[in-house]
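[job 0412] stage=fold_complex status=start
inputs:
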Amino acid sequence: MKKNYSINRILVYVFLVFTFIVSVFPFYWMVAGMTNSAVDVIKGKMTFGNQMLSNITTLFTTYNMVRILLNSLKVTGFTVLGILIVSSMAAYGFQIYSSPAREKVYGLIILFMMVPFIALMIPLFRLIVKMHLLNTHSGLVLTSIASVFIIFFLRQSFKAFPYEIIQAARVDGAGEFRIFFSIFIPSMKSSYAAAAIYSFMASWNAYLWPLIILQTDKQKTVTLMISSMSSAYFPEWGVIMTAIVIATLPIIIVFFGFQKYFVQGMLGSSLKQ
Amino acid sequence: MTEKGISRSFIKPRDKYGWLFISLALILLGVLLFYPIVYSLYLSTMSSKGIVQKFVGFGNYVKLFQDSMFILALKNTLTFFLIQVPIMLFLALILATILNDKTIKYRGLFRTAFFLPAVTSLIAYTILFKMMFSLDGFINGVLLNVHIINSPIPWLLDPFWAKVTLIIGLTWRWTGYNMIFYLSALQNIPEEIYEAAKIDGANKVKQFFYITIPLLKPLILFTAIMSTIGTLQLFDEPMNLSQGGVTSATIGPGNSLLTLSVYVYNLCFKYMPNFGYAATVSYAIVLIVALLSIIQFKLMGDKK
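[job 0412] stage=fold_complex status=done
writing structure:
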């Protein structure tokens, strides 16, 4: 009986270690690939080579990586900021000033969250063209800052905020907006952090929508550039690996730095119901 | 809650602030969400070639059934849904159950590692997989070396294996993500339930099927529906796994990776644009998502 138990144990560990290797290996491979030539990468070379410097140089000279990174940073930065302002005000409005009429509006918005983006894409594209925002970063940001998911997520976490504090501030004569900006926001930092990380990821990794509205090389984001590099006739895999590492790095850093908020943000608030 | 009492005396006079706070979001959602949904529906009754548009009513919807490309895309998408989602969710459940066992060593390390793929961008991991699964690439090299296969598998060159590659990729990317949901829910199940089951003679496998799965049912339903929406929107991966990426003539060998979302994109931006018909296909996706969600609700019981 006891022996049987330990065999099961070993099998469980074998399964865990196997899954561990499968999960982590591509990360190792991408770092190794960064140091290898295109031929070595495609042949599956697993060890480190000596092409790193040349890959990095090609990436920053031929592909103008600095401008591409700045494009991504700019778009992501403004999008996250916009989402946080718009969504947190909305979540606050829905939660703190709860009224039957607004609950109906809220229900409708949540229902629309189920509609896949692809169904909105065509009208949005026409709108962008009409407003002469095609190939502009402002067009991309403007169409990305209304996030139903973040409104939903923030409202769930705002439920934990003690209403008495708002009441007390009102008695002290503070205005409604002052209460929101100088009392509420500072005390909900962790919810904001989770929402920020989630929107950062979504915006930094976005592909379909930027692909449609940013059609010139000058405006491209990192994701678009990696995709178009690999679509080339003779893809320079070593250089592409370098670009992938650079594009993934910010998210890995955020992940290990703020793991708690990160997971909280990914889970949304589904667990609190 | 106490808010009921408060609402009469405090909230009423402040009602306008409620609208003020949500106004910015309402305007944006009105233009960027509500208007597109309605306009898409209107467009789906039009046929457009270039700039010429004419009303066809349900014509486009009838056309769907005769459109072999649409049927192929639908078949492909449903194949990915029916095969990949169950495998992934089952694997996620097993991993979560194992990692919830406090006697397992290095649980934190395993959890972090399993979740790590969920951090990568869809484009990045797709391209990594495209390289690893090339004909003389890493995966074939390993399989040949340990003599599991005698000749290289044409992963991305054969319609069947291309689908397998995409399914492996999707499972790699999303299993850990779903596992985290289950893990946080499992931590809320009191251990006494399992203790009692053990005394009654239920082994680990029985505990898994008779305790863990029933208790996590609402969450399994939630993740299943999220995965349904995700699968029906598959775009980044099939597009970038194909030879030549965005510019490729077919999506995967013999269009084996052509999904509904990719088809909508092609109808708009690759072929002679027919926005009306593309809107019809996109509405078909909405209907399929709704239908599959309702089926899953029915299958998993009525509990909310």
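[job 0412] summary: Strands of chain B lie at 46-49, 52-55.
[job 0412] exit 0
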